[in-house]
# Entry
Amino acid sequence: LAPATAHFHRSLSSNTFFNLKILSYVLSVFPKMSEENVHPQETSVADFEKNAREKSSEFVWTYHNAPGERGQTFMDNCEAFKRYRLIPRNLRDVYIRDTSVTVLGTKLDLPVAIAPTAAHIFVHPEAELATFRGAAAMKTGMVLSSWSHHTLEDVAAAAPSGVRWFYMLFYRDRGRMKQLLERAERAGYTAIFLTVDSPIYPFSLRKRPVAFPVKMRLPNVWLDDVVPYTPGTLQHEAYLTRIAKEAATWDDVKWVLRNTSLPVVLKGILSADDAQIAVDLGVSGIYVSNHGGREQDGLPATIDVLPDIVDAVGGKAEVYPDG
# Structure
């Protein structure tokens, strides 16, 4: 890689993997492609993105792919990778190739995993069930979003041998969080991911209702609550604002660590200082993410801050970038 700094090389040779949001599209539409007897020709992420764009309505594409504010971070995520080059190591035996990587104690055949993304129902009638089956077929992992259309138990049952991790929101009611942690453990999820880069959720700022193209459910958010409001309405947004804890703190992270036996990964870390604090608390993974540039514009590209974070962690936790 160029610039060929030693610390950058270490950052990519550690247990890292890329969580590319676009693969949630690809793996969820793949069953459709098989049914239509269409042989997929995609060989790059750009090909996958083009395929997903062609299969998506304007609303769905905008929902999943729209940048925040002016799109500075959104665009820089792509441009930053163009600033680096691959340095080949020649005269190596390449007849046997191994792309496997071990993440949180589990071997994955593919060093690309599915990031937590909402509303897979927009791109496939089986939503996250199809995405998880696709991930399991590729023998890689998937982080199930709390904004899933299906319960975490139903997704687990869709591919019992699949590697699955659960992304949990911070809630004002810790009893709700405890219930979700216990359900995730019983359903065979092997890690808890916490998003720490959303101090304000978009729904708390929305002034107008949103009309979704399909009927949505949020069973991992509603739990046992009776929700009389339709997702997208201002009443439902107000309900979410009441139950979710937007301004989470390190105390909330400590509480999660005390109340689960599963490894905990923090998603949204961009600061080496924050990474060091997380490691000192006992977090198992640092997920370097800027939310795809969708939440807070003006943040650095993930690959640009990755080396400093890896150095700060010092091998005490795994590091995963997305973007």
